[in-house]
Amino acid sequence: QVPVVESGGGLVQAGGSLRLSCAASGRTFSVDAMGWFRQAPGKEREFVAAMTWSSWSGRRTDYADSVKGRFTISRDNAKNTVYLQMNSLKPEDTAVYYCAVATRGLGGRYTSLTDYDYWGQGTQVTVSS
Length: 129
Known about the structure:
about 130 residues; about 0% helix
């Protein structure tokens, strides 16, 4: 088991910034990727960003086109925590943001929901216009 806890959501005006945190615990040695997804009301959960790491391919980051250049995913190894720095926020970024952890060593870009094994409860991000 790898429990995951998100934090850092809130209300911000358009153009503002927020930083989300995702802390993993438990069997963290089995984690090979962590990602962020979001779900707006009435919409399906969608990929936002992912960070993968392995001994043979090193570290890799991927972003949805809608957030490239505005969002940055980073990791603190010592804390088993990944962050999502969100800048230049737009009203359309409003959603519940979920952190997810992958442990099966699937490889690839980890942009699909089915790549992940453990999910957090989500944190609300609201961007006002």
